[in-house]
Amino acid sequence: MIFSDVVGQADVKRHLVEMVNHNRLSHALLFTGKEGRGGLALAVALAQYVVCERTTGASSDGGLFEAAMPAAIPSDACGVCSACKKASAFVHPDIHFSYPVIPKKAGDKPLSTDFISEWREFLKTHPYGNTYDWLQFIGAENKQGNITAHECSDIIRKLNLKSFESQYKILIMWMPEYLGTEGNKLLKLIEEPPPGTLFLFVTENESLLLPTIVSRTQLIRIPPLGADDIERELVKKGLAAEQAVQVAAVSDGSYRESLQLMQHAGEDWQSYLREWLNAIVKSALSVQVRWIEDMSSLGRERQKQFLRYFNHLLGLAVRLRVMGDQALKISEPERDFANRLNKMTGIEQQEAMMQELDNAAYYIERNANPKMLFHALTIKLHHIITGKSLILTI
What we know:
elongated; Zinc Finger, Delta Prime, domain 3; disordered C terminus; 5 strands; alpha/beta; 2 domains; Rossmann fold; five-stranded parallel β-sheet
């Protein structure tokens, strides 16, 4: 994987290349950002850039950390040299991977290499996947993945060996939050690594890491993807431009989320929303009950998409109120709906509704009963819209 394969993140890519070019690359980087933003893809692309024979991998003038680099370095790996071909297939002998795994049988002390074939296939097909995707990919079902003390010992062993082909030995550790206190075994290695060693940690939740590991790394923060970047990728995958705009707008900067939403991009969420709001405003109980039954039958992912779409329209309504009717580039149906929301509710009500929708999406992800959840949410929105005090909680 090269940088041009990574969706968006132009500023981060440029920053990484400049750090290499100006000899400011730390021996330990921590890529931190929520799922779907491309942290793993960026780490893999950086590793290939480092070993590429036509960029830093071809240099004999010192190393990444101590000597001057060549005057002109390409902005991306070539993708065609022997090192790039191996890196792209995830078989380069100097690029090592570590990730959460499960025992294959009771009593095993699992290593990442036990699942290396599955990992290579996962990277090829799900480079923006999350931990849940990976554990399901290897058939973990309800088992908890871990990066064990046994794995840490294996990392120490591998990184103390001489490199095979490149000047550098690279460890990409995905989801180091699964280390727990076992990560203390790696502290000395991270602080005093063998020459030419590069650690690339990729986390979705920096707060769960051992502070002693975070303090030894250089942070690379991964921002949400721009809607335009996601939209372009979805169009490349064959999604109609209008649907791509809608999906990108509600993906919350996550390419993984947009791929999930793409599967239901043809849904007419405005019709669902219009029926629901009319039933809430008119206190039409029978219509509310029927709507809740219908929504409860859609499945968790579609329910989350509906809530995100409603939140998206509320956000548009707030921006239209603040920035003016012609300031935003949005479709006419969405503009009309957002303006109707502004006539029906004030900005404080809209903010309260957005908070309740966020809470509902959170509970759906944790398998809340959908009928109870949407029934409670219907009552809450009724109280918010009609200006009554809110007394119900989930």
